[in-house]
Design a protein that fits this description.
The protein is built from five helices and 26 strands. By secondary structure, it is mostly beta strands.
Length: about 425
């Protein structure tokens, strides 16, 4: 199917995109399309046959056409560009490019299985604004038809949840590739793990903790399991949202340490897109605590081109201090990790909410990561906590952040203070909802 169709950002555009087929097709229509593909052909995908003066005959779907040439997608999955001056004959058929005997390659059960799977592929929201495509292991977040981020619900190696492969609205990726790729994601001076530091632990944008009641979720020694949506994804032209439930398991996976209910609210703003993240941690069964590990809080791993070390990026906090040497260990109202890609200044600005239990400090590294930590800074780094922040049974511990994925012309000034003030105003306007309590 990938030879012609597109699904989960893979494949070709030679035939209709199947990513949200469940939103616009019936099971009967899907089965008939497999068994009798020429009965109903989507507009623009009829097969054309072109004969040339050299005697060649090409059959396929027109991808592009100019005054000079016609570009065809062939049944083989390849493309061919045919100069118009060489065309001797051209006609449109009533046949689908999809082979008429395709259905014979599968058993009835296989056809039923692939139909059921295609029916599960649905997009919710506004196609001109925020929309979401839900799949078994991930939720793709779109704006105006373009994927801007993916929420990983399940992954074989990454055992805590994360937003990965985050893009600006113009399609520039601002977080490191997940999984990382060589040679672009090679870490300067790093010789382990094929030259890429923390290839799984640093996925994109995530909330993680080095110590929750003695369990290390940062280093993936204990698991955070996706336990479904509290509120299903929904979107309109200017905003979108969803709420997840995650279970923090102890190291042997037999006991739930606490539950995390997280509300994600996305908005289109002047500088790009903003997501407000509100995470509430609680347990109905027991008291639990957060240790003061430096690897705790909301974290960002930026795209390799905008790192400080090995790229052209800058880490900046609200006092104007820059890069790891100046901002590490300092409290901050906001931090921005940004640089220039394709003449655009792009980056990720993190703003901890002032209603968080305490001010945040920055664990920032020039190789590409910044962590906005809401717990006390250890006098000397160690795994065992100096300070424990306890949460009593039945109570909630809540952390809130605003994350701006920004994208502006490189020669245009960027007013961080105005962005932060707008974020604060949005919190006051929005108020506290029942989902935050």
């Amino acid at each position: 199917c990938y030879r012609c169709h597109r699904m989960e950002n893979r494949g070709n555009t030679f035939a209709p995109d199947l990513s949200d087929l469940g939103s616009r097709g019936s099971a009967e229509a899907i089965v008939r399309s497999i068994l009798h593909p020429s009965e109903v052909i989507t507009e623009g995908f009829s097969q054309q046959i072109i004969g040339t003066e050299s005697g060649d005959v090409h059959a396929g779907v027109v991808l592009e056409e100019s005054a000079i040439e016609v570009k065809l997608a062939l049944v083989s999955g390849k493309t061919v560009a045919i100069p118009k001056k060489d065309i001797l004959e051209r006609r449109t058929t009533k046949l689908s490019v999809m082979p008429g005997d395709f259905g014979k390659t599968m058993s009835p059960q296989q056809i039923a299985d692939i139909t059921a799977w295609l029916m599960s592929q649905k997009i919710t929201g506004d196609r001109d604004g925020f929309s979401f495509r839900n799949a078994p292991n991930q939720l793709d977040i779109h704006f105006a038809g373009k994927r801007i981020a993916t929420y990983l619900k399940k992954h074989d190696q990454l055992t805590r949840r994360s937003l990965v492969n985050v893009n600006t609205l113009t399609g520039i990726q601002v977080t490191r590739n997940f999984p990382p790729r060589l040679p672009e994601d090679r870490t300067v001076g790093y010789n382990r793990e094929h030259g890429i530091d923390h290839p799984v632990m640093h996925p994109g944008i995530w909330i993680g903790f080095g110590d929750v009641h003695g369990n290390d979720y940062w280093r993936l020694q204990s698991k955070v399991i996706f336990d479904g949506f509290v509120h299903l994804p929904t979107g309109d032209k200017t905003s979108g949202s969803f709420t997840t439930r995650n279970r923090y398991m102890n190291r042997d996976g037999k006991q739930v340490v606490c539950t995390q209910i997280t509300r994600y609210v996305f908005r289109r703003v002047k500088q790009g897109w903003l997501v407000n993240i509100n995470a509430a941690f609680s347990s109905k069964d027991r008291d639990f605590y957060f240790g003061d590990q430096e690897e705790s809080g909301l974290a960002v791993r930026v795209a390799s081109p905008i790192r400080v070390q090995g790229g052209n990026g800058t880490i900046l906090n609200d006092r104007g201090e820059k890069n790891g040497a100046q901002v590490w260990g300092k409290q901050a109202k906001w931090v921005d990790y940004a640089g220039v890609i394709d003449s655009r200044r792009v980056g990720v600005m993190v703003m901890p909410s002032p209603v968080n239990p305490r001010p945040s400090w920055l664990h920032a590294r020039d190789y590409g990561v910044v962590v906005v930590n809401p717990f006390p800074k250890q006098p000397k780094e160690r795994r065992e906590p100096y300070v424990k922040t306890y949460v009593k049974k039945g109570e909630r511990f809540t952390l809130s952040y605003g994350v701006l994925v920004h994208d502006t012309p490189a020669d245009q000034s960027f007013n961080h203070r105005a962005v932060y003030n707008e974020f604060i105003e949005s919190l006051q306007t929005r108020g506290t909802t029942s989902e935050d309590r």
